[in-house]
């Protein structure tokens, strides 16, 4: 390479650097509430995370067709994370200042949640982790900025045991039973363990822990162990291709699928569609909602967006399980803003700090939800300073070979008597480590 | 006893599949001295092509519901792998002759990125289905001998058979055909081979093409088992200990290494795993390979490295 | 014209053996360091600090460590991520288990622990070499991944296996804003880079290079391969481990083993090879290339799309990013197999002759 080329390369590099610097300074426009969207549209997680992102964005678009949040339009910006924590941090830094400041972040990754938990309080931006993230962050007195709305993995574990007890005909029959947990070997997968072990002391069943190394495409040894021990039930905490492989191996070793119960990240269409009939009878917890193709909100989205060709993703995906989770996640963020506007001024753009108050005082009753088109999709949510989760209702749906459906309309609620002490203990430990003083009730009411 | 046998058989079958991926590594290393990290990406690419063409071709030509569509997809995907091999030789390898091993290794990682990107752009990044009619349900043998019977996974069994046949064919190809001999000559000594008139570039294309076909077969088998999705490219990481255990330059080494690793990791996970909390199979495979290397630094069947000063 | 050594006469051995024998080089390096310490903080915004500069500095340090092992001693490693993890978790344990442990000491002890582990995993290098060794070092990678996931003691019995640190300070100096974090990492990097530069010029560095170039010949002239190889593993792991501790403490503040996965190991090896084997400068170039390029591509592609009038989807951008990134790697390897550092020295050669090249 000669000198000229070298100089050219150098100046090109300088140009690129200046390009970064310039794009990071997008001017703030008035009357727009900015929702950053961290997406995973490539890599191993993409089949599961893409419908979530599409649902999220479609809902934000739907809000705009209805006139925004009291007249404030929503804007959004995507950033691809590839499900890698360092890319999530980069995206967070990139998006947090855009369009006058981010409303709330939803990383859709437990590892990412852990990393952002340390950053959000400094930047004063709330984190919404609907159905994932750290379970002890339910205690808002310590985790001021985290909102694991609708449910945590601990809720999931507790309900899983309730479900099994019901199948066996009562908690007394749990005694002496063997339950295996096949989990993704990461903080995400391990979150399910403490509650299962706590409850095993109470009910006298035994837990067998079977970790699967990410990404989870090799599970032959795991299922051989299951065949050997013949547990009465198998719980599955998988994500992405791991769920698919688990069901394939269950089929290959002849383990009955109706004795398997996944958590709500292991019970969507991409997890079972390829197995088809082979997964028939497999059940999974739901974060209240299942596949809701007949709900009003889905019909609204189809009419307002897809009929005009403004939909984000393929039309077939609208209303699928993970799509609905995206819709719900976006809705919770939007409602946080709406609530904040009640206090800080209707029709104004809310800052992260104001939205935090809104999320902490969220009160969506059934009437409001029904009016928004969520009838039959979810139950009321009411948050408070000590309870950033707001609701712990769970249903169980079953794969019939072609679709997810609810065999019964039973709703389960996590047992607060079991979970609350654990949440307080774990969040107390966190507060101690960080030398944080939990907020007192007076500080909460400010 | 029944359970031990099951684990052993499961390990052997998993090992056969590892061998299939490992074979791709060995073929390319033998002929061109390139440690091809893109093998995993090639498996993904081939499987994606196969899955999508099997979906598209019947629509184009109206071959609904027949195996003809699948067969045509296999042929088209094979042709595509040939194009890929030719492009890799033309655009990358040709320009990197005589570079160090590490540089070539990095170049193949670059190829892996490009293939993953192009594959996802052309064929999408959802989960796709390859249906070649593999049976999914297990059979139980010797139910009178062992309680619960001896479980054999039919799909794995057929896959192992296909792998074995493929290995046999490759061996024949290498031993009996003129091209095969030319390949072996190139593997032994590039310069000597060139001096007797063997065209190096063409040989490389052929070798990458064969590796591409092996990747296609591996992709079809794994894809029919797990569904075709991005994680397929990580099977390469499972096959690496196989390659170094067997020796980088030995085809029988890849086969035997695969069986040893497959059996070793399944037995360790099932019998040692519960004592230490499980999840040990992946590092156990590597440690097993490492221990063997301490005694035989060139792998079980690799050519001895002779240093001349 | 401007860059030449004519007229600079060395009158003592000391002067002849300085780190940068050419005055312009010396001033340039001093200038860059001053620029980095004084001017950069005035010029850039928070995003640049947090998302680009801090990761760049820390990964440069790690690349420097990998370069010592791969570039100077010729032992290919794919296990660098493992040593980053060891450094991070060891530093974490020193930090929380010893009351009143200064941060600086925790980080360095993390590096030190990593060095010890490095020696253990370096032992196979005495028998195994080349690509076999590269794959064998993956054993370290997968083993440490497993250890930190499975043994609760290392993660202070945290329920999920995730650990975090906060309220970091060095002798009363709070590491709570991006500027301080940047300066802290920069100080580390400056000291370590000087250390590396000098180490590679000293007896031990020459031993490493002798082993790299031909180990049998090196043995004949009296270099002990055992000492040379294991010391390279130890020093390299020390650098990488310290970088890992910084990555965990300063950049992420909360982490899980996946932060140091096998992808990280590949990334580090990339940096070294793209940057230039056996060159301190090359480690910086490589780190810049690997850290900044994907981000630049990710941000530039939509704008290019706007210019042409097509809207590219997020997925399309990431796919294009993969293709261009891979393509550029291949391009650079073909054009300059010795790395970006070689381009740099070619440039310097040309500058010496300029403007009269004949």
Automatic annotation (TrEMBL), chain A:
Family matches, as Pfam families: Peripla_BP_6
User: Which UniProt keywords are given for this protein, alphabetically ordered?
Assistant: Signal
Could you confirm whether the keyword Plastid appears in this record? no
Q: Show the coiled coil region(s).
A: none
Q: Where is the signal peptide?
A: 1-27
Q: Which residues form the Leucine-binding protein domain?
A: 36-400
- Family in the record: Belongs to the leucine-binding protein family.
Name used for this protein in its record? Leucine-binding protein domain-containing protein
TrEMBL record, chain B:
| Transmembrane annotation, as ranges | 12-29, 41-61, 67-89, 101-123, 157-174, 203-222, 242-263, 270-295
Coiled-coil segments on the chain, per record: none
Question: Record's CDD domains?
Answer: TM_PBP1_LivH_like (cd06582)
Q: Which GO terms describe its cellular component?
A: plasma membrane
Spell out the subcellular localization from the entry.
Cell membrane
Highest rank taxon of the organism: Bacteria
Recite the UniProt keywords alphabetically.
Answer: Amino-acid transport, Cell membrane, Membrane, Transmembrane, Transmembrane helix, Transport
Report how it sits in the membrane.
Multi-pass membrane protein
Signal sequence: where?
none
Q: Name one GO molecular function term.
A: transmembrane transporter activity
Main location, first listed in the record:
membrane
GO biological process: what's one of them?
A: amino acid transport
Q: Which Pfam families match?
A: BPD_transp_2 (PF02653)
The Swiss-Prot or TrEMBL record describes its family as follows: Belongs to the binding-protein-dependent transport system permease family. LivHM subfamily.
Listed name of the protein: LIV-I protein H
Q: Which organism is it from?
A: Accumulibacter regalis
Source taxonomy: Bacteria, Pseudomonadati, Pseudomonadota, Betaproteobacteria, Candidatus Accumulibacter
Automatic annotation (TrEMBL), chain C:
Query: Where in or outside the cell?
Result: Cell membrane
| Keyword list, A-Z | Cell membrane, Membrane, Transmembrane, Transmembrane helix
The keyword Thylakoid belongs to this UniProt entry's keyword annotation? no
Reading the lineage from the top rank, the first entry is Bacteria
Transmembrane stretches, by residue range? 27-44, 50-69, 76-95, 101-123, 130-149, 179-196, 230-250, 270-296, 308-334
- What is its membrane topology? Multi-pass membrane protein
What InterPro entries has UniProt attached to this entry?
ABC_transp_permease, LivM-like
Question: Which GO MF term does the entry hold, naming one?
Answer: branched-chain amino acid transmembrane transporter activity
Which Pfam families did the record assign? BPD_transp_2
Task: Extract one GO cellular component term from the record.
Answer: plasma membrane
Instruction: Tell me the leader sequence span.
Output: none
Q: Does the keyword Cell inner membrane apply?
A: no
- The protein here is known as Leucine/isoleucine/valine transporter permease subunit
Upper classification of the organism: Bacteria, Pseudomonadati, Pseudomonadota, Betaproteobacteria, Candidatus Accumulibacter
